[in-house]
Design a protein that fits this description.
heterodimer, A: mainly alpha, B: 2 domains, two-stranded parallel ribbon, elongated
Amino acid sequence: MSQDLNFFTTTSRNSSSSNYTNSLNAGRSFNNTNCFNNSTTNNVSNHFTVTEDRSEMLAWLSPLEPRLRHQNLEAGRVDKVGDWLLQTEQFRSWLDRNSQGDNQNATIFCHGQSGGWKDVYLVRDTAPKRRNADKDLFSNKFPLQFSSSRYPM
Amino acid sequence: MLGALLKQVVCGLEKIPEEITQEFVEQKKVIGGRGLRLDQIVKLLVATSLKPTFVCIDAMDECAVRDRAKILTSLGEIIQKSPTTRVFLTGRPHIRGEVETRLPRGVMAVSVSPWKYDIIHYIRRRLEEDPSPDAMDERLESEIVKKIPETVSEM
C-alpha cells in the first residue's frame, strides 16, 4: 500500500517563486537520501536520458530543492506536537475518503491566526512510525513526511 | 511553485516522462531556454498522478493574491481531473472563501489554534537542547515556560 502513494508538500510563502519549498517524496524514491542521486539510466527517445541529463532536467523543472528543505525542517521537528490534528474527525475523514476513492472533500484547509503555531502543528511526521509500521495508524497511508515552512523559534 | 511539485513527482519516477523529455529538448533550441508553461505543468501533474497523491501547501495566505488565484485554480483543475489527488492547505481564515470557491469536490475547514500542552512541550524540548544550560537558572526557565504560552493564547 505504501508503495502506491505520492505525498508532496510545498509552501506558498512569498509567492509562486518562493524559496520556502519543502518536503517530498514519492514511494519508490523514499529511501533515497537525495532524489537527485538517482542512478536511473533508462534510455528514452532523443538519445537523451543519462544520469546527468536527468539532473539537468530536474533542475530545469524547478531550481528549488525540496528534499534539502525538508531535511532541514525535519531536523527541528518535535515529537508529538500536533498529533491531535491527525486525530480530528475532519482529518481522518479526508484521509479515509481518499483510500475509499470517495469523490468528496478532496481538500482540507487548516486555518489559524498568525503567530506561527499553526505551522508547528504541521511539523508532524511519521518518521518514528515507519520503524513501527504495524503499530501505527497512519503508517500504511502516510509513508512520507509532511512539515511546515517555518518554525516560530 | 507548481513546477517544484512536478519536480517532486518526477523524482519519484524511475524514468522521466516522455512529454517532459521532449519539452526539455525543445526549449533548449530557444536562446537562454525557457521553462514549462503553467498549463503544461498542470497537465503533467494530472498525467503523473495516477497513484493516490497528496499535495500539501503551507501558508497559502502568504502567497501574492494574483499568484494565489492561479495556484488555487490550477489545483482545482488537478483535483477535478485526478480523482485520487487530495489537497492539504494551511492559511489564515480570511482566504477560506477563496479556497472553497476555487477548489471543487468539497473543502473541509479545520480551525487550528495553539494547544497549551503542545506549546509547553515544544518549549521544554527546545530548552533541553540548549547548548549552554548553565546560563539559565530554574526561575528563568519556568518563567519562559509560563509566559510564552500566555502570549500565544492572546493572539
